[in-house]
Design a protein that fits this description.
single chain; about 55 residues; mainly alpha; 2 helices; about 55% helix; rod-shaped
Length: about 55
């Protein structure tokens, strides 16, 4: 039978807050940059298609 001592934690925002409060190593990039880079690439590709396509 399963171990009854280790009961699962209740699903609540408390567990999520503890998870996201942990700091990890690595680059920290602002979410605005992550959204702006693909949008700018799309706009640049449209401009290239409009002005440079024969």
């Amino acid at each position: 039978m399963a171990d009854k001592k280790a009961a699962p934690l209740p699903a609540s925002s408390g567990g999520l807050m503890r998870f996201f409060e942990d700091e990890t190593k690595g680059f920290k990039i602002d979410p605005k940059i992550i959204v702006c880079i693909p949008m700018s690439l799309i706009v640049v590709s449209w401009l290239i298609e409009i002005f440079l396509a024969p």
